[in-house]
Amino acid sequence: MDDRRARLLIHGASGRMGRSLLSLVAEHPGLHLVAAVANAPRADLGALAVLRPAQIAQAPAFDVVIDFSAPSALPALAAACAERGAALVSGTTGLDAAALAALDQAAQRVPVLWAANFSLGVALLAALARRAAAAVPDWDCEIIETHHRRKQDAPSGTALRLGEAIAAGRGQSLAALARHGREGAQAPRIAGEIGFHAVRGGDVVGDHQILLAGEAEVIELTHRAASREVFARGALKSAAWLSGRGPGRYRVEDVLGLAD
After folding, report:
1. Tens digits of residue pLDDT in 225-241
2. Which of 150, 138, 149, 158 is CA-nearest to residue 214?
3. Annotation-wise, does 1 bind a ligand?
4. Does the record carry Membrane as a key word (predicted)?
5. Active-site residue, selected from the candidate residues 147, 208, 223, 237
6. Which CATH code fits 6-114+228-255?
7. Is 151 a catalytic residue?
8. Between these two residues, 206 and 56, which has the higher pLDDT value?
9. Which partner from 79, 114, 130, 133 sits 20 to 30 angstroms from 143, CA to CA?
10. Higher-confidence residue: 85 or 94?
11. Is 15 annotated as a binding residue?
C-alpha cells in the first residue's frame, strides 16, 4: 500500500453518485478507500467498513470525505470532519441555511470544497464564461440547461454557478440580474439581465449552454455530460487535491488552477 495515498471515506454510498465513486476509486492513485457511509447494507463491499450515518464516529481514521447525501445530513458530517481534522468534499445540493453555515464553520478548521457540479469541463466553462462576459459586457446572455425528467430543482445548481461567473465577470451580483423563464406578453429584454431556462426530459445527464448575443453575431458555449462518471472522477480528483491543504473554502476551479 502507498502510504502517501489519502484515506477516503465516501458519505452517501447508497446513491447514484456514491455507487459511481465506489466503482472508480480504485483507479485513482492518490486515494485509498477505508470506509463508506450508506443508508442500506452493501454486501458487495466485502471487508470495507460500511457504516450507517449515525455511526460515522466509529469510522476508521480518514483524511478526506466525499459527500453526496442529503442537506439534513451535512451539519453532522461537517462537524465530524472538523473534529477529525479531515478535508470535506461535498456535492450535496439543495442546501439550506443550516447546511451552508455548517460548511462555513467547518472551513475554519479544515479544508472544505463544495460544488454543485464536479465536472472539470464545467469548471473550465465557468472560467471561460466569466472572461467572455467581461469582454462583451453589453451582449445579451441566456443560459439553457437540460436534465433528466427526475431532476427536482430548476434551474440547476450548475446553471446558477455559470450565471454567477457571468455576473462576476461584469462586476455585478447575480441576484440583481437573474430572470427565470419568459412567458406571455412581457416587456422587452432588460439590458444586462441573465436569463435562465430549464428543460426536463428523458435520461439526459446534464447539458448546459451559454448564449451570448450581440449585434449580428452570437457566441455559444456548451458543455454536455455523457455519463455520471465525469462527476465522480472530478470529485475524486478534488478529494486527492484537497487532502492536506489548509483550512478554508475551495472550488473546483482551484483544483484546476483556474481561480482568480
Report:
1. 999 899 999 999 999 99
2. 138
3. no
4. no
5. 147
6. 3.40.50.720
7. yes
8. 206
9. 114
10. 85
11. yes
